[in-house]
Amino acid sequence: MSVAFVHGFILAFGLILPLGVQNVFVFNQGAVQMSFFKALPAIITASVCDTILITLAVFGVSFVVLEFIWLKTILIAAGTCFLIYMGIVTWRSKPAVERESGSFTAKKQMIFAVSVSLLNPHAILDTIGVIGTSSLKYAGAGKAAFAIACIFVSWIWFTSLAITGRVIGTLDQSGKFLIVLNKVSAVIMWGTVVYIVKAFI
After folding, report:
1. What's the domain range around 158?
2. How far is CA 1 from CA 11, 137, 140, 143, 149, in A?
3. Rounded CA gap, 54 and 81, in Å?
């Protein structure tokens, strides 16, 4: 059981570490909100979405998606369109203005967090293909420990990202750093689209 937990922890940390759409969104919310607590809707929603995806992947739903090519095609098509759109929005965003206008309401944070979590084919396929497949070697308590470890990493990671964003947002009142980060993030999103389409073809 302890081996399964450690395995799940290391695997989930390796998957969640790279800069991706979810990470950028939660980090930015920590930076643009007036306090850490106002970024909680983004943190909690992203974590809950990951919890759902991990649970489904570990307990077998993942293989339904992998088995039906048409379902996978729809997922990738919808996800790539969304990533292109999110890349454009992120490239054009101005964090300093957003901080002043208070445009990131709790409802908007939750909607965006659900979108970047459940409409991101790269994240979903990672969860399905890697976490779901890796969990096959465990059963019973071991499988549960593996899933709990992966979920635990998500909650800790998103919370830490928002805290880091809050610190940087406080130090960078002009928003210049976040503008650069958004440009880099947009390029990464578009690069992810190219990678996903190339891999699928």
Report:
1. 2-7+21-200
2. 15, 12, 9, 8, 11
3. 23
Q: Is residue 14 part of a domain?
A: no
**Which DSSP letter does residue 38 get?**
G
The per-residue pLDDT for range 9-33, each reduced to its tens digit, is 887 877 776 656 788 888 888 888 8
Spatial CA neighbour of 39 closest among 158, 155, 122? 158
If you average pLDDT over residues 113-123, what whole number do you get? Answer: 78
**pLDDT score at 105:** 84
Tokens of residue 36, six digits: 């850490």
Q: Which of 123, 53, 43 is nearest to 83 (CA)?
A: 123
- Does this model's pTM top 0.85? My answer is no
Number of domain units in the chain: 1
pLDDT digits (tens, 9 = 90+) for 59-81: 875 555 556 666 667 766 776 77
**Is 15 domain-assigned?**
no
CA distance 13 to 152: 10
* Rg of the chain on CA atoms, in Å: 17
* In a domain? residue 94: yes
